[in-house]
Write a structure and sequence with these properties.
The chain is α+β, with helices and mostly antiparallel strands and 259 residues long. The chain contains 9 helices and 6 strands. The model has no long low-confidence stretch (mean pLDDT 91).
């Protein structure tokens, strides 16, 4: 948090207020609380463990929102921190969403995410704010609702942040197990919130929803592909996700938002 706040204070754009939301979960409820407190016309959401990589990130995000009323969600690229250890650098090469390309123009993309994003507050309110009843999938849910309401979801040009990747096998396995559990919870109790995530920069061919049978048939193929390509981290992560998913289907209870 201190590094994030230091990078916030260094921004060239100065007309903002900062609200830190603590002790509120799940994430959607915390974001809604921050939005309720905010008095500005544009919301910028930041993860507490991220760091703005450049002093012009806020300036760029605000300009992108101001210049095009069709944009409802503008995100900054997520880049591997310069001090990343060897494990994190390997992970960045095996998981595209961990290391997002920095674009040189406004680019429609499913890679924009809550790690650092800007939205007109009026649009945020109009689409129903964040969902407070899901533990996984907040990003794809909001992106889909933005697009369904007629707004673009984009990456802003030359805007990026540093966000720490899992730095050990234990943290990687724990994260994907938790994601698998969350996915199972959503499938059991909120199937309308289950969406795909895209790993390519271009969103033109992206299909946001697939049936359960399709995803189940695809899963073993992903394991085989990861093994054939020698991507051990990806293979282990998929296995952890699968175990978490099965555990969630067996044990998750409605209203219990943690594995």
């Amino acid at each position: 948090m201190p590094r994030l706040l230091e990078s916030v204070r260094a921004q060239t754009f100065r007309d903002f207020e900062t609200h830190i939301v603590e002790g509120v979960s799940p994430q959607g409820k915390a974001i809604n609380e921050g939005a309720r407190l905010a008095r500005g016309s544009i919301l910028i959401i930041l993860d507490d463990d991220s760091e703005l990589a450049d002093t012009t990130v806020f300036e760029t995000l605000v300009r992108v929102i101001d210049e095009d009323a069709s944009i409802g969600f503008a995100g900054a690229s997520i880049v591997t921190p310069p001090n990343a250890n060897a494990f994190q650098q390997r992970a960045a090469g095996q998981f595209p969403r961990f290391n997002t390309p920095v674009v040189d123009r406004v680019t429609d993309s499913d890679l924009a995410c809550h790690g650092c994003c800007a939205m007109p507050k009026a649009v945020f309110e109009a689409i129903g704010r964040e969902r407070e009843d899901i533990i996984r999938g907040l990003d794809p849910d909001l992106r889909v609702r933005m697009r369904n309401a007629g707004y673009r979801v984009v990456l802003a040009p030359n805007a990026w942040i540093y966000h720490p990747l899992p730095d050990s096998w234990h943290k990687l396995v724990r994260m994907f197990f938790r994601n698998g559990f969350g996915s199972a919870y959503a499938q059991k109790f909120q199937p309308d919130s289950v969406y795909e995530t895209h790993e390519a920069l271009d969103a033109a061919a992206f299909v946001p929803r697939r049936p359960l049978w399709y995803r189940a048939a695809r899963f073993p193929l992903r394991l085989v592909k990861a093994a054939a390509e020698g991507k051990a981290m990806r293979l282990v992560a998929y296995c952890a996700y699968g175990v978490g998913y099965v555990w969630g289907m067996l044990t998750a209870k409605k209203g219990s938002l943690a594995p």
